[in-house]
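Quick illustration, no need to memorize.
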Amino acid sequence: GYNPNLQVRPYDTGKSKQVIAAAQADGVNTDVPVTIYFRSGQFARITELAEAVSGMLNEVGFKTKVQALEASVYAVVWRQKPFPGDKLGINSHGNELGDLSTTARYYRCDQGASAFCDPKVDQMEVKAREATGETRAKLYQEVQAYMYDQEATIPVGRMLSYYGLSKRLEW
């Protein structure tokens, strides 16, 4: 289901400021403070990552702060339904395939790890999961494209993955 047609969105503070100004002109309260939550110790330098994201968001007009949480507390906050609009969560998942079929639990309404809920995504994902071969790949690409258009996630970076194999293991 990896979709090679989806491009990384550029980091553009000017455009971000324009979007926020347009929202304010439409009456949206953009002064709501946003807390960026992260699991303490989830991966190396996660605190610095959260602070960097906070700084970038503040630079364009948001009012953010960061808060480290112990893993079990983070899980409770992350699983609130619907997920409050004044919270962001930093998560990491080793999606080596770049494929929704391995990460649907983060995007389906009925999944505990999902802060995103769009019934259309659920329907599309079920249809893709039940398909096989090229049809399955094409349907998952369509789900990815739809979610990209909905801006369901904000990719920040991709950590490198390292694996070790034994000569006795056939992979």
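The two ends are 21 Å apart (CA to CA).
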